[in-house]
Amino acid sequence: MKLCRFNDDRLGLLEGDDVLDVTAALEALPALRYPFPAHDQLIANLAAVRQAVERVSGSAKRISVNSITLLSPVANPGKIIAAPVNYVKHLQEVLGDPSLHHNNQINHIERAGLFLKATSSLVGMSHGVNYNQAERRTDHEVELVIVIGKTCKNVSRSDALSYVAGYSVGLDMTIRGPEERSFRKSPDTYTVLGPWLVTADEVSAPGNLEMGLLVNGETRQKTNTGQLILGVEALIELASKFYTLHPGDLIFTGTPEGVGPVQPGDRIHAFIEGVGQLEVEVRGEAV
Length: 287
Prior knowledge:
Elements lengths: L1 E5 L3 E6 L2 E4 L19 H4 L1 H11 L4 E4 L15 E3 L5 H8 L2 H4 L7 H4 L2 E3 L4 E3 L4 E2 L7 E3 L1 E7 L15 E9 L1 E2 L5 H4 L6 E9 L10 E6 L2 E7 L7 H11 L7 E3 L7 E3 L4 E6 L3 E8 L4
Parallel strand pairs: 5-16, 7-13, 8-19
Antiparallel strand pairs: 1-2, 1-13, 2-3, 3-4, 5-6, 9-12, 9-17, 10-11, 10-16, 11-13, 14-15, 14-18, 18-19
């Protein structure tokens, strides 16, 4: 099942080139009062929502996917966790290019660990990227994103996939410079997620997905998730050793080689086999 959030927080079910407006299925969510849970309620109740979607989809309004505004499919992640230099060739690329590392210490991911991005940086495909710090270089990074489905801690690799709600395509936009990763990767709009959530049952082999990124039609990045240093299961295991993971938490799995700069006016096309395609516009710096 491919679920999207669109327009004014409506819920959609992708069917071919159309979206079925299944917003009525959100009635399956529990009524909540302050203080609200610090995790995503749709993901936490995904099984009930999916059952409701199946009930209402037969009479749902059909809309062309090209006529809607696609928001981030996960509205309220408690955490955005990201994996640095998690492809061998990207590690070599960063170590060999001072404009990428700016004399920051670059470690193998097993030593560097993971890092966090601000949830305020999250947007959907239709919003696009607002260039930040016009005098600095901003790079594109395409990544497979894991959406955690259940609360968990100290998960083993063998059980890791049972805690996955689904997957999405992510852009981890990055300002180059000497500051810490989390700081440079967390400006508004610098985390793009979409175009929809693909439920885990549709992705049988997350460790074997073709993926890539083009800028203005030029191929910049191309790889297979089989080239990850730490795969999906290992990343969940590592993250859950340090954090309790909650429904809707996002794990950006890392980007392959080929990262490069973008400028306002550029169009980014990112794709992951079986997951989806992002079409994102880079805009000028927001006022």
